[in-house]
TrEMBL record:
Lineage per the UniProt record: Bacteria, Bacillati, Actinomycetota, Actinomycetes, Kitasatosporales
Sequence ranges assigned to domain Integral membrane bound transporter in this UniProt record: 428-553
Membrane spanning residue stretches: 21-43, 49-66, 75-93, 99-116, 123-140, 146-168, 417-434, 440-456, 468-484, 490-507, 514-532, 544-561
Subcellular location, record wording: Cell membrane
Family the entry assigns: Belongs to the YccS/YhfK family.
Protein topology in the membrane: Multi-pass membrane protein
Region annotated Disordered, chain positions: 745-764
Keyword list, A-Z: Cell membrane, Membrane, Transmembrane, Transmembrane helix
Keyword Amino-acid biosynthesis: no
Name recorded for this polypeptide: FUSC family protein
Record organism: Streptomyces atriruber
Length: 764
């Protein structure tokens, strides 16, 4: 029975790691539940099939359109959405027979729906409800005589959506955050499991190490994704700002400690130093040797301690307490202070120290989540860690966020998008009428959706391509499903519900898959409405292609935002955030005033995530310029590496005010000044500003490493680790200068680091 429970828990952990916070699962269940409840209420009333379809589609729209986090806000938006929906269905029914008037109103409605995004989640939801319900009126060919029944159907659909949202599948910020914490724990356990596989990898197989490295990269990226999702839900999901800041800091500590452990294990398994870029660039080569720099005894001890660390993560939840766990934790915590450190090479001993740091981060995470009431088992090292955590908690204070300059007029993204999508929709209406006077609205819908959550011409092109690909595949599935269900109405509705669930479950993962489920669902809906034919589904492909083409034309010709311009903007933002983190961290490490470095690091991560999204059109397989694709990947990977070292510096600097083992050192200011100077030059180049400076490089930081080695060994590894992060940052910024065309200074005499310096500047 225990084995079954462990297996079930392992399966659940993998699923939880694949769907952080179960957000996709809950969205799918909530939407499906609203549709099923609406059908269950409407069917006994003798509602016609046409009205059942309208009710199901409205219940779906009323559920997925609302994305606000607070329950009160969701209720208000849902209440406001009903009159908007009733107005949209009424106007759709009245204007259905008036071609010109209906088309003009549809374009105005599209403009208003997109423009309303500037008013936040509520404006976005109301605009989406208005557009989609008007589309429903076109889909079911609503008429004035059918309006009373349709209004009743829509009212029932909204009521069913409210019941499912607030009673059947309730969603509160606290519950979402709790599930995200569980997903973070599962992904952390998954990452450590892959690190164990890396340690045990058989280098005799050509494919096994590469697969393990891919798994390691993927699990590291997924852990970072979960951390970002938690940060986005903290303010609404915690009781106060101090609790949110505390949890944010603990999550950041755990992420940094786990990522650093992976880098050091890679370094130990390799015969030579491994670049941090290895974790962020899939094509970066790594040559794993049979043992690397790990002896047999040290390898056995490392495997034992990694499994113990994995156990601490798996048993992080409060229901899994046991007196053996604190003793395991205490032994691992001792490695931070050189207590019981196993014999081995410097690279191996760094791994054991990193395990100690990870154990401390896990203790802090457990304290933030549930208090970890097991102080009676504490060793002196564990007691000191708790005291440090308590001191940090006392020192936490919120700072007001700086207000960003708001763009106005056509420069505002919502206004520009509204104009673009209106022009594209007008073209789609004209072209769609030529293809079909009855199904023209599919072209308009495609033009609408390719503009959702896109900000550049390249993103619109990629989204249009994915929409068309998913539609073609969905037509094939729609033909097969329509033939299978025949005249069985409720079987068709059951398959529609499954398609809806698939649509919402896959939407964040693959837009092509979502389009596939949408088109397959439409084939079934046409079957229910007795309007199905193969020609109709072929027309769906034609209208989709037309709508995507109209969207692309509008994006290219009307107030265009070039992909390169958008990526340059996002790159400039990332560089500014990187400079803020490095400057503040070095200042605090040099004895300067304390600032909220965790918030600065979070802003850097958010900006980097935006840059990653903006470069997807450049790195997509259909992008024609291969060299540009490789350059974009390389720059993003370098920035991810720099962000990792900046986060590590920030995490170490946060310890200065409260820790007895981490002291400020004024000598670090000089190294930080050179790094920030280089970042400023690169940022100016990205902004196309005239600059006379050149990128400074040399061996100054490596020299500090070499000259300070004996002092570092006497006092511990923290100061040495800071210097290593600074050197890797320095090298990463210089690496960015080359592909971005920033001139480099001539190398200093003796500027090439010695072999000893290269060895000691291994990533940490």
């Amino acid at each position: 029975m225990a084995a079954v429970r462990r297996t079930a828990k392992g399966i659940w952990d993998r699923f939880s790691a694949s769907d952080p916070g179960l957000l996709r699962l809950m969205a799918g269940l909530r939407t499906v539940g609203a549709i099923l409840l609406a059908l269950a209420v409407l069917a006994p009333l003798g509602t016609s099939v046409t009205h059942l379809v309208a009710g199901a589609m409205t219940a779906m729209v009323a559920t997925f359109a609302i994305q606000e986090k607070e329950v009160r806000g969701q209720a208000i938006t849902l209440a406001l959405g009903l009159p908007v929906a009733l107005a949209a269905i009424s106007l759709g029914a009245l204007l259905n027979s008036r071609v010109v008037g209906g088309d003009v109103f549809f374009i105005l409605l599209i403009f208003g729906a997109v423009y309303c995004r500037r008013f936040g989640d509520r404006g976005t939801a109301l605009g989406l409800i208005g557009f989609q319900v008007y589309f429903v009126s076109l889909f079911v060919s609503a008429s004035a005589s059918a309006l009373p029944g349709l209004c009743l159907t829509l009212t029932v659909a909204f009521a069913c959506s409210a019941i499912v949202r607030f009673a059947v599948v309730p969603e509160t910020p606290e519950r979402t955050l709790a599930r995200l914490r569980e997903a973070f724990r599962a992904r952390l356990a998954q990452l450590i499991a892959h690190q164990i596989e890396l340690l045990e990898a058989d280098t005799g197989s050509a494919e096994a190490p590469e697969k393990i490295l891919d798994d390691l990269r993927r699990s590291t990226a997924r852990l970072h994704e979960a951390a970002l999702m938690i940060q986005g839900r903290l303010e609404e999901g915690t009781r106060d700002a101090a609790a949110a800041a505390l949890l944010q800091r603990r999550v950041a500590d755990a992420e940094i400690a786990a990522e650093r452990l992976g880098v050091l294990l890679l370094n130990a398994r390799s015969a030579e130093r491994v670049e941090t870029l290895t974790l962020h660039l899939p094509s970066a080569p790594v040559a794993l040797s049979r043992r690397g720099r790990i002896g047999q005894d040290a390898g056995t001890a490392l495997r034992r301690d990694l499994r113990a660390l994995h156990l601490l993560v798996v048993r992080l939840v409060p229901d899994d307490r046991g007196t053996a766990l604190p003793y395991v934790r205490n032994r691992l915590l001792g490695y931070r202070e050189e207590q019981g450190l196993p014999q081995g090479s410097p690279a191996v001993q760094d791994c054991f120290r990193a395990i100690g740091e990870a154990a401390r981060a896990i203790l802090g995470l457990r304290l933030a989540v549930d208090g970890a009431r097991d102080e009676e088992y504490d060793s002196p090292e564990a007691m000191r860690s708790r005291e440090e955590f308590e001191a940090e908690e006392i020192s936490i204070s919120g700072e007001a966020a700086e207000a960003e300059e708001e763009q106005t007029g056509l420069r505002r993204p919502t206004t520009r998008a509204a104009v673009q999508v209106s022009v594209g929709s007008a073209l789609a209406i004209v072209g769609g009428e030529f293809l079909s006077t009855q199904r023209w609205y599919w072209a308009v819908l495609t033009c609408w959706v390719v503009f959702l959550n896109t900000a550049s011409t390249g993103e619109i092109m990629v989204k249009g391509y994915r929409r068309l690909l998913g539609t073609v595949l969905g037509v094939v599935a729609g033909v097969a499903l329509a033939g299978a269900v025949g005249n069985h109405t409720w079987a068709a509705f059951a398959l529609v519900v499954l398609c809806v669930f698939g649509m919402f479950f896959t939407a964040p993962l693959s837009y092509a898959m979502m389009s596939f489920f949408v088109t397959a669902m439409l084939g079934l809906l046409y079957t229910l409405l007795n309007t199905y034919s193969f020609d109709v589904l072929v027309l769906r492909i034609e209208e989709t292609a037309l709508g995507a083409a109209c969207g692309i034309i509008a994006a290219v010709l009307v107030l265009p935002v070039r992909t390169s311009h958008r990526t340059d903007e996002e790159l400039g933002t990332v560089l500014a955030r990187l400079r803020d983190v490095v400057s503040a961290a070095v200042s605090q490490l040099s004895g300067g005033p304390a600032v909220d470095l965790v918030d600065l690091a979070r802003d850097l991560d958010t900006a980097l995530d935006d840059l990653r999204s903006s470069t997807k059109p450049l790195t997509h397989p259909i992008a024609p310029l291969r060299a540009r694709r490789q350059t974009a990947r390389y720059i993003v990977a370098l920035l991810e590496t720099c962000a990792y070292h900046a986060r590590s510096l920030a995490a170490t600097a946060e310890l200065v005010p409260s820790s007895k083992s981490v002291a400020a050192d004024a000598r670090l200011a000089l190294a930080g000044r050179r790094i920030t100077h280089n970042i400023d030059l690169i940022a100016a180049q990205v902004r196309d500003e005239e600059t006379d400076g050149v990128i400074e490089s040399g061996s100054s930081i490596a020299s500090m490493l070499d000259s300070g080695r004996h002092e570092v060994l006497r006092t511990g590894s923290v100061a040495f680790r800071v210097l290593r992060h600074l050197q890797r940052l320095d090298e990463g910024i210089v690496g960015l200068a080359r592909p971005l065309g920033v001139p480099l200074a001539a190398p200093e005499e003796g500027g090439t680091a010695s072999a000893s310096q290269r060895r000691h500047s291994a990533n940490g």
